[in-house]
Predict the structure of UDP-3-O-acyl-N-acetylglucosamine deacetylase.
Amino acid sequence: MQTTLHTPASVAGTGLHSGSSARVTLKDAAPGTGIVFRRVDVTDRDNLIPALWDRVLQSPLATRIVNGDGVMVSTIEHLMAALAGTGVHNAIVEIDGPEVPILDGSAATLVRAILAAGIRQQDATLEAIEVLEPVEVREGPAWARLEPAAGPEMDFAIDFPDAAIGHQEKALGLSNGAFVRELCDSRTFCRQADVDAMRAKGLALGGTYLNAVVVDGRGC
């Protein structure tokens, strides 16, 4: 069955790339709505942005979606993960700025807010996509692949020359609350060279959060 939030859930903080403050409030939505962002600070044009694959802009280092009137919202990854990981199918996401706050760099704060608000079932069946054959994308040395499976599973690895990161891997079945227990507090990280490159492009302006990045191969 489809689900939505039982009561509203709110968080506030600073955007990682814009450095802008924003408040996010998750509200219930009717069956079949999906996840829809509403830019409440935009009042002169359509301010609704459905979180759909065909609304995604090419935006390295953050996921950005846009509607037909050019209204955008950025860095939605952790919020979308929190909603998916807690099993919320329908929600209106009200936000008063252009970027979702980075919070502690993970989805954990959002997950806690959603669980505190509660999740209720709706009188509507859920449609799902079944992966019938492998689908793969590659960019340089990085790649990601979807494969058919009996249930939701993930298997990933990273490999960095920096001693503080090194080679890490994890395989996890994503049923029965595993995302909440084992994955939602995984934090975004980067190296000082990455921060310098992003700031040269006018990104990564959320300075408070960036005190927690990995700097020159050392935990900072």
Observations:
- The CA atoms of residues 4 and 171 lie 29 Å apart.
- The two ends are 44 Å apart (CA to CA).
- Confidence is low (pLDDT under 50) at residues 210-220.
